[in-house]
Structures are given as C-alpha cells and as structure tokens.
Trypsin-like peptidase domain-containing protein
Amino acid sequence: MMRAPLAALAAVAAVVLAGCAQVVTGMPKVPAAVLPAITSTPAPDAVVEAARHSVVKVRAPAGDCGRLLGGTGFVVAPNRVLTAAHVVAGSDSVSISADDTVLDGQVISYDAAADVAIIDVPGLAAAPLNLAGLPVAPATEAVALGFPDGGAFTALPARVSQVVDLTGPDIYRTTTVTRAVYIVSLPGGLPAGASGGPLVDRSGRVLGIMFGNDVEHADTGFALTSVELARHTTALTGGLPVWTGDCVS
C-alpha cells in the first residue's frame, strides 16, 4: 500500500500525547479526515468482550518529577505488555491492573523515538492479542480500547483515515524520527489515560497502538501501525529491566 510522506509539509501542528497530557510540537500538519460520521462502535460486542481481558491499565510512579503516570497497555506475548513509552517515561516502578488483579512489572524495552515500551509482568494470565500483518486501507472500521482518565474499560469507535510515513520529534523533542502511522478518526479524540491502548479491527486484530491527538483537529488521533510494532518483537524474549529515561516535560 502506498503511503503519503508528511515530512515535506511546511506547516507545523502539535500532537498531544494522551497518556500524560503532554504536548509535543514540531509534528507536520495532517489533513482532517473526510469520512462519514461514526455513530456506533464499529466492532461486534463479542470481539470487544474477548479483547478486554488482554487490555490492561498501567500505573507508573515517577518520583523525580512528582507524578503518577498512567495509561493503557495490551498483552502481546505471555507475560508481556506493550504500551507507549511516554506512559512510563521516568518511572521508578510499574504495575498493571488486569481483570481487577494488580501485578507488578518491570520495563524491559524502552524506545523514546518510536514511543514504544514493553513491560514484563510475571504471573499475567491474559492471552496475547494478535497483530495485523499488513497496513489496512483507509476507511477501515476499528475501535480504540483503553481506560480514559484511568477509569473503566471503554471501547471508543474509530476509523482509519490514512496511513502515512510521519516524520517528527521523539517524545523528548531531541531527535527526529519517521514512523508508519495511522491517522484515526476518533470522535472527541483520544482521552488521557487511553494512550498505549490497542486499535483493533472488527475481527479483534491489533492494527496499532494509540499514542496521541492532532490538536488542530479535535476528532483526529494517531496510532503507530502494527508493522512498526513488529519491529519490537525481538524484545519479547528478553527479561532484564532497562532505564525508562527522563520524565517527559
């Protein structure tokens, strides 16, 4: 599938990282989605119910910056949870809540450029979700799963608008990175606390990981594609804790 490179666009927008309500400037401006309004959850209830047991709430205290970070993650392999790196940036420890059970974990992979982190969670019983193998076409119906504002599990109706090669800053605004990203039509945008959650299709396959919003278009979010996520699967067999960097300012 052909993707549109956005690095050449001169205008600059801002993206809100929805896990910790951080603003990252310097992202290229993207066009607003021109698609029919989403009026219902575009995934069968059975698909959402099956996936919810593999979607977890992430909590990560960061003492150096006086914050309790929070977001969403999902199971990608036995005892392994994938989330957005900014959800655990600068954290001292991490725990996840799965089906009302709280488990301690440790970050074993942290990529500030891609905004991806993997957490080792011993004793995690939830089954892994399957990653989609290829990018999907625009107008594909989907649902974003997560815990808005750290509350109850929620299925947010969504639709893929475009898949693009998006060039912009990493979470610390210290380097530039190009990533394959879905521009997602999402009524109201991605709420705080839902960042790091999966974007799934009608069959329950993970299309990508939600990580932020386009502040110029209130109903537009961003998801790192499953193709990008697959590049991190080598970390699934590791087990040693890694440094989670500095807090995101």
In short: The first helix runs from residue 45 to 52. Residues 14-44+129-230 form a domain with the Thrombin, subunit H fold (CATH 2.40.10.10). The mean pLDDT is 86. The first strand starts at residue 4 and ends at 5.
